[in-house]
Design goal:
The chain is of the alpha/beta class. 36% of the residues lie in helices and 18% in strands. It has a nine-stranded mixed sheet with strand order 3-4-5-2-1-6-7-11-12, sandwiched between helices. The chain has a six-stranded parallel sheet with strand order 15-14-13-16-17-18, sandwiched between helices. Bound molecules: adenosine-5'-diphosphate.
């Protein structure tokens, strides 16, 4: 059979341009798919960062039919892992100082609809029958609102067309613009309706993708269920519930080269599931580094997070005195809401032997916390997929998580049955309240005191397969199914 051809349309790719987990997926998934024989090309806007990071670009073609944008050049570069990147060269749209979506003052670029309309349009041109390329994809996969008009453009193009997949990384971002842009961006006026791109009287890029794509995916099976209801559907729950047969949740993978305790250059003491002895030495090094009492007998709770309402860490300050009395130690690395930053700094000032709060982003320290903590804390109110709970399982640091989204799908609760059958990897609580969180922490700490059980829970987590290879196999099965090849 001919290799499956995939055009992957995305507004971000690690390490060149990243604001969230979508960038990681856009780098790792195409690579893993290519390793499985897929002929994949990734389409991205030519932001200043992209133009500067890739000096060896080749001219591919001119695109004349992009609507109001005039002539647009398409460039090509090969990434270090061999994946081909297609770059939209349109300096007026993309080459400017600031972020991909906001300027230096934190305001959205005023022409975001046009900028990401162009990304979507080029995705549709390269995917459709009018493409100037010899290469015609079987599937076009779009990611989040920035590329979500592609399925709409293809729907109104002369066929034959590829199958389209709309992947949601976070429902909270939707790309909503004034209705007049519908026709300005080259969509027919008839598409502006309930059965089309309209959402509460506005043009919604995300709604367009969810409505017109042949299939919808999101980054965990539980999140796929949750977004069919209030509140996590963020207004799209009705449409998603109607399309539930076309909606699939696939958990993201993690980068096993970056996150492997046996070879992690950030760790003073490497270790593995077969020999966990280095983990205690990492704990002592972390306690020493952060000025905590160096004591193997006090359980150390680790947190690495954006400090936002989503992450549920506002539940912690009110129960901290009871936890510290047990005793426990707590390490927090993160930044975000100034209220929470201040609460954690005050906690650390009050109990410097027991609490360390590091405000900021620190990659090396995040690895050292994953390795040095005994237990990882992730009480997110919602979590489409989540990465840290997977990292912590690989590092023998069982996570405590709220039963939501990808957390529910990747952590197996240490119930007596799951401990007995060898599947337990962490601790899961329902209802994101301070009381339930405290109960769950107490349950985890009592398990930690039983060294035999604890080691089993650690090793169960360390031996699980969270690789991109597993996720890529699920995407492959989905593509084959969409093309009727299975
Ligand atoms: P989200 O994408 O919602 O922030 P995830 O768990 O999916 O949450 O991914 C967060 C990523 O960012 C992880 O790799 C995590 O380790 C990292 N991270 C978050 N905050 C920090 C920080 N302050 N320092 C270092 N890494 C951080």
């Amino acid at each position: 059979m001919l290799p499956l051809k995939l055009l992957f349309v995305t507004p971000e790719i690690t390490p060149i341009i990243k604001t969230g987990g979508l960038a990681d997926v856009s780098a790792a998934l195409p690579t893993a798919l290519q390793e499985r024989g897929v002929d994949v090309r990734v389409l991205i806007p030519g932001y200043t960062h992209v133009m500067e990071a890739l000096p060896h670009k080749r001219h591919v073609t001119e695109l004349m039919n992009t609507g109001a944008h005039g002539e647009v050049h398409l460039l090509e570069a090969t990434l270090p892992d061999g994946v081909t990147l297609l770059i939209i060269d349109h300096p007026q749209s993309y080459e400017r100082d600031g972020g991909p979506y906001i300027d230096h003052n934190g305001h959205d670029w005023v022409d975001n609809a046009q900028r990401f309309g162009l990304l979507s349009k080029v995705g549709a041109i390269l995917g459709g029958s009018l493409s100037p390329l010899d290469w015609h994809p079987d599937i076009v996969q779009c990611n989040d609102w920035q590329s979500a008009l592609t399925p709409a453009y293809l729907h109104f193009s002369p066929g034959p067309n590829p199958a389209t997949v709309m992947t949601i990384h976070n429902m909270a971002f939707q790309g909503v613009f004034p209705p007049v842009l519908t026709t300005q961006l080259g969509l027919p006026a008839s598409s502006f309706g309930v059965n089309g791109v309209e959402y509460h009287g506005q043009l919604s890029f995300l709604k367009a993708g969810l409505y017109y794509a042949n299939h919808i995916t999101t980054v965990s099976p539980t999140y796929a269920e949750e977004i069919q209801q209030e509140p996590l559907g963020f207004g799209m729950q009705g449409l998603l519930a109607e399309r539930y047969l076309d909606l699939t949740g696939i958990i993201n993978g993690i980068d096993k080269h970056e996150w492997n305790p046996a070879s992690d250059p950030h760790l003073p003491h490497p270790y593995s599931a077969d020999d966990l002895s280095g983990k205690a030495a990492n704990k002592a090094a972390l306690q020493h580094k952060l000025g905590l009492e160096v004591n193997p007998d006090i359980p150390l709770l680790g947190i690495i997070s954006r400090l936002t309402h989503q992450k549920g860490l506002d539940l912690l300050p009110s129960i901290a005195p009871a936890l510290l009395a047990m005793p426990v130690q707590i390490v927090i690395l993160g930044s975000g809401s100034s209220e929470l930053e201040t609460a954690f700094i005050l906690l650390a000032q009050k109990s410097p032997n027991q609490v360390a709060a590091v405000i900021g982003f620190n990659e090396g320290l995040s690895h050292q916390i994953e390795a040095g903590a005994d237990i990882f804390l992730m009480p997110s109110r919602f979590e489409p997929c989540g990465l840290n709970q997977m990292y912590s399982q690989c590092y023998g640091t069982p996570p405590i998580v709220h039963a939501t989204g990808g957390l529910a799908d990747t952590v197996v609760d240490a119930t007596p049955e799951n401990i007995a059958n060898g599947s337990a990897t962490g601790f899961v609580f329902k209802h994101a309240t301070a009381h339930r969180l405290q109960e769950c922490i107490e349950r985890a700490i009592s398990a930690w005191h039983d060294k035999e059980i604890w080691q089993k829970i650690q090793q169960n987590g360390m031996r699980r397969d969270f690789s991109w290879n597993r996720s890529a196999a699920e995407y492959m099965a989905l593509y084959e199914n969409l093309l009727g090849r299975d």
